[in-house]
Amino acid sequence: MATAPRPRTTTRDPEELAHRLTVWLGTRLPGAKAVGVTVPASNGLSSETLLFDIEHPEPPLRSCALRLAADPSAYTVFPVYDMVRQYRTMEVVGRFSDLPVPKVQWLEEDPGPLGAPFFVMERVQGRVPPDVMPYTYEGNWLHAASDTEREHLETATVGLLAHLHDQVPVREAAFLELPGEGDALRRHVTAQRAYYDWVVDGLARSPLIEQAFDRLEQLWPPDPGPPVLNWGDARIGNVIYDGFDPVAVLDWEMAALAPREVDLGWTVYLHRFFQDLTVAFGQRGLPGFLRRDRVEARYARLTGHTPRDMDFFTLYAALRHAVVMLRIAYRQAFFGEVDLPADPDTLILHHGSLRAMVQGSYWD
Description:
364 residues; 12% strand; five-stranded antiparallel β-sheet; two-stranded antiparallel ribbon; alpha+beta
């Protein structure tokens, strides 16, 4: 889908990690060994994942997944990796909602054992819609599914957002409140602006991203509504499915208190990102899947809340994704994987759709 190589997902030695993990595990569960330690091929570009089993007569968990903060020396995607925050978020969501969140077992705040803080949770079996090549491309289980099966998955996935937003009391997630002045939406956008400034510090700025920030101000909702606990990276690529039913909701590092529409805009746009790329490369994709109007209608039926100002929130999602993509591109350049072009906007794969959103023509 792109001429640049796939960005590296780790700079760590898997064998060394496996040895150090076994040593650490013995301090938490004497006599236990970590066996079958693997780094999944689908490992993300942010926090890293290790999969392993525990060899012990009475382990609290048999199959485990470990989330490890990014190596701080490896040109990280985000400036901070707060594993305590992620651990607490998953614990709260698991305690106050019926979302299938993997059980969290251990939190290690000391970077000594593995080089960075981490936590261990139960490993859930199932399948995940792929990002590479994306599920909108032919040749994967979701693309090959029937319309009825995909509709079932879509309904269940929108239900995850509805239940999360309605069931988790905001007071229990108060630790996710972002710093700054103004309401939750203003704080969220301010944090994104600070993240963008960090990404371009000493590097070329993106005129398109800055135009998108300006456009947000013009579209600012008159009443953003009260905040709820937002998943943050609310997309089907962060869900494990058994058949077409969600059995594990993953990746909570972007969780925050924000209006409901922040999650909804991300869900809608991240699918459109893959769909647009697929069409650009000559395939039909999945045009009827996760359509904005259907997501909004399903959410309204489940919650009684009709999503508002979605032009703003889908633009905001595309803008946030653009900042992440710019950082990943600069990371690739740091490792010598790509050469930087004269126009930094071309580093953003969806620069065409983001520009159309800024101009107000994308959803026409």
